[in-house]
Amino acid sequence: MILKNYPSLVLNADYHPLSYFPLSVWDWKDAIKAVFLDRVNIIAEYEYKVNSASFSMRLPSVVSLKKYINLSRKPVFTRFNLFLRDHFQCQYCAQNFKTSDLTFDHVIPKSKGGTTCWENVVSACSKCNLKKSDLSISKAKMSPIIDPYEPSNSQLQLIGKTFPPNYLHESWIDYLYWDTELEKN
Ligand SMILES: [Zn+2]
């Protein structure tokens, strides 16, 4: 079975993806379950069909929620969201890294009273993190590229949009590059 290769792109009721990075996708089982529970509309389908005794249907490649989910809630302060805010870029040497190679650094070191919050933590590669150690930015002569800030969900979404997802089914493209599509007209 290669059914795991049939993810469904999940759009909010306004046809925007719930999140761009990581892309909001469900596996085919969740997508079909949501169809049967009448929670989503099928927008596009794969050629591939699943058959059972009671039904036969093409697997959905794009679904949209019937009920709009409000995304105005503040983003959770997670490593991933932090790396995303910082464009997966070490804030000291300006190089890009995979999430697995990034660490987080306290701008004002914990030992000097710095707290673990959006405003005091930045993404750093291990080399820079080690070099900065628990020195202040003036002692270390290293200062982050950005002034760390608490991002909004829409800011994170905009940043996420600049990173192409690993897997793009052609039926997803219209929804991912919505703004580009509109400009063409
Ligand atoms: Zn670095």
Note the total helix count: 7
Q: Can you give the helix content as a percent range?
A: 25-40%
Give the strand order of the largest sheet, numbering strands 1, 2, ... along the chain.
2-1-4-3
Distance between the termini: 41 Å
Bound molecules: zinc ion
Please compute the radius of gyration using only Cα atoms. 21 Å
Form type: elongated
Largest sheet: 4 strands, mixed
List the helices and strands in order: EEHEEHEEHHHHH
| Count of spatially separate domains | 2
Helix/strand/pairing class, anyone? alpha+beta
Low-confidence stretches: 177-185
Average pLDDT level: 83
Strand content: 15-25%
SS elements, strand count = 6
Fold blueprint:
Elements: E1 8-11, E2 25-26, H1 28-36, E3 40-51, E4 56-65, H2 79-85, E5 102-106, E6 121-125, H3 126-132, H4 137-140, H5 153-161, H6 173-176, H7 178-184
Parallel strand pairs: 1-4
Antiparallel strand pairs: 1-2, 3-4, 5-6
Task: Characterize the structure shown.
This protein has 185 residues and is of the alpha+beta class. It folds into two domains: 3-71 and 162-184, no CATH class; 79-140, DNA Binding (I), subunit A, CATH 1.10.30. It is built from seven helices and six strands, in the order ββαββαββααααα. The protein has helices at 28-36, 79-85, 126-132, 137-140, 153-161, 173-176, 178-184; strands at residues 8-11, 25-26, 40-51, 56-65, 102-106, 121-125. The strands form two sheets. The chain has a four-stranded mixed beta sheet. A two-stranded antiparallel ribbon has the order 5-6. It binds zinc ion. Zinc ion is lined by residues 90, 92-93, 95, 124-125, 127-128.
